[in-house]
Amino acid sequence: MKKIISLVLVFALAMSFTLVPSLAEGVITPVPAEGMDLMDAAIAGYFFAGDINEREENVNASGYVGITNIVPLYDTENTVVAYYITYSTGVYAVINNNPENPEAIEFGAGTQHYIEDALSKNANARLVYSNPVSVFTESEIAALPAETRAQFMNLSDCYTDLDERNDVLAAQVQGFKETLTIPDASVMGDGNWGFYDSADMPSGTYSSDMITKARYVDWAKMSDYYSIAYDHCGPTAITNLALYYAMRGYSNLKINNSKWDTFVAIHALTNSGATLDIISYANTYFNNRSYEFEYASVDNAQRFKSATTKERPVGVLLLDGINAAHWVIGVGWRTYSGNSDFYVRINNGWDGTVDTFYKLNVGSLMVRAASVWIP
């Protein structure tokens, strides 16, 4: 029987970009917002591969299953055709990027060595995947003679049925996904997001910066709203964006000058406690309060620094595992001179402070981030 894992957030792609961590720490690869939702792909992968390696040493006592990597795989037309997903239980899957046919092109114990070999040459490479034994970097394809490139077979050439509907399989994966929402089936991830309290940060010389007035915001905390909301990190993050800019002088963002009223309005707008799409909801809320709203993808350390310099908070979505995700607000950064380690300073949504740090893609994966501002 497949492991029952509680699913904290059921996602729907609604933003104009998706960010998928590469193997390189702190580096994120933009992926077109088309085809399968990333979490649906991860769930489909575990539907196929989950029973292979579920020995006690691979699954902790709580039943937590982590996603250790998600890599988009392309064809020669720069279309994402599949996702390569590895799990903390020591299994992997390559899932067809088709929500109507979430077929596992391959899955097994360990990792896919052709893909891993390609990534070992360049962790940020865009991989062209034709079949399980034909994986190339984009640069390797470009270096082929024109005649050879013209004869190159894409995934759809090798497996013509992947573009067809498979209603039976789609229903099976959907059924598995629904079992993951069973209350009390498991814990909400392993709880180790890779966060550091400021007192626990490494010693040594560092440089840092933080957006203006971040310490003076009366930040919203998830615990403030447990009586009316559940799994509400998204609405809490949007509330904190509103509270930050209200502190900066855009006072109409704070309804009735009340943090509670502001959260209630935002929570009603999202129509859900859990949401992947805080950016478009934040846009709607800011517009409803008579303010323009703009955002930009933040996909590496340099862009975090740039956002901080421009006094722009950053909404950051983290994955703790196949069953847990959490929104935080980036308010600054710190980097150490000795080893160049880069940390994002965050409001974690729990304690109402900005004294927590997150090292990019350590402890949890950053899958989405955007700086927001009022022009």
Please explain how this structure is put together:
- The chain is an alpha+beta fold and 375 residues long.
- It contains 10 helices and 16 strands.
- The strands form 3 sheets. Strands 9, 10, 11, 12, 13, 14, 15 and 16 form an 8-stranded antiparallel beta sheet that branches. Strands 6-5-4-3-7-8 form a 6-stranded mixed beta sheet, with helices on both faces.
- β5 (91-96) and β6 (104-109) form a beta hairpin.
- α7 packs across α9.
Quaternary: single chain
User: What is the makeup of the main sheet?
Assistant: 8 strands, antiparallel
Report helical residue fraction: 25-40%
Class of secondary structure makeup: alpha+beta
Number of strands: 16
Task: Please report which band the strand proportion falls in: under 5%, 5-15%, 15-25%, 25-35%, 35-45% or over 45%.
Answer: 25-35%
What integer value in Å does the Rg equal?
Answer: 21 Å
Keywords:
375 residues; alpha+beta; eight-stranded antiparallel β-sheet; six-stranded mixed β-sheet
